[in-house]
């Protein structure tokens, strides 16, 4: 499944000729002067006060990927480590700026972020939406490759020079690490590679022995969601849901598509309304699906708390 907005086709509209020329000139000046000094880190936390210096100005020499996240967002906790690892692997060809939406509401509004996780890029001062919602490592890597190519071809931006492959300067001193859970590691690897069936099996294996393992619960819910939507025709699903509001299966498919695309409130609202319309086993199947989607986001997410309240009202 391709996450929403993974395409880079919109860059032409965002890349004004003047901005391209200015960025290319800055990049050439930097190279002529022996290259700019590398930033303190390739993965940085950014707030509204530092946005201009740490994102806009740096985007003239390196594509800046922006990760909008929050502490309560469980999918963010799945996505952010992948973004950070790939950023270090790309060794200066991209920079990752992490923005906590709870502390930086203005930036969230300026970028039009509707749900998290949401990933954008800034190239030569020009904003570019990349994707929203969950994404596998292979798809993120393809997006990074496209971003690097666009930055170089249209703006002459080649990134921070002189960093060895896979060694960002922000690498922290490694302390003693806890032993990695082998089955969870295998599950995450399967999820990242797009082998959803293997990921589901592995997460279920973990939960058989550790029913309370939160990482496995979230991973299983996410893997099952991606498995349900990977072969869907999005346009057909949207049309069916609009034309057949009383078709429970049509609403379930549309809710899955909403969730996978990062439209969390839409997914929850659709299923709460479907619960209200239905009875018996049909109602129970929708309720169970809604609880599964709650697992994808995490019980502490305010959107889950709100949806639980709405569900209780229609049930009782």
What does it look like?
This protein is α/β, with parallel strands linked by helices. Helices cover 56% and strands 9% of the residues. It contains 14 helices and five strands. It has a five-stranded mixed sheet. Strand 2, helix 4 and strand 3 form a beta-alpha-beta unit. The longest helix is centred in the middle third of the chain and has 19 residues. The two termini are 37 Å apart.
Please report the distance between the alpha carbons of the first and last residues.
37 Å
Q: Major beta sheet, specifics?
A: 5 strands, mixed
Q: What helical percentage do the residues reach? A: 55-70%
DSSP helical segment count: 14
What are the secondary-structure elements, in order, as H or E?
HHEHEHEHEEHHHHHHHHH
The secondary-structure class comes to alpha/beta
Strand order of the largest sheet: 1-3-2-4-5
Radius of gyration: 21 Å
Mean pLDDT metric: 80
Oligomer: single chain
Task: List low-pLDDT spans.
Answer: 1-24, 30-40, 166-175
DSSP, total strands: 5
Estimate the global geometry from the Cα principal axes.
globular
Outline of the structure:
With 316 residues, this protein is an alpha/beta fold. The protein has helices at residues 11-14, 17-32, 51-56, 74-89, 105-110, 137-155, 182-193, 196-209, 214-229, 234-243, 248-260, 264-277, 280-297, 302-315, and strands at 43-45, 64-69, 95-100, 118-123, 126-132.
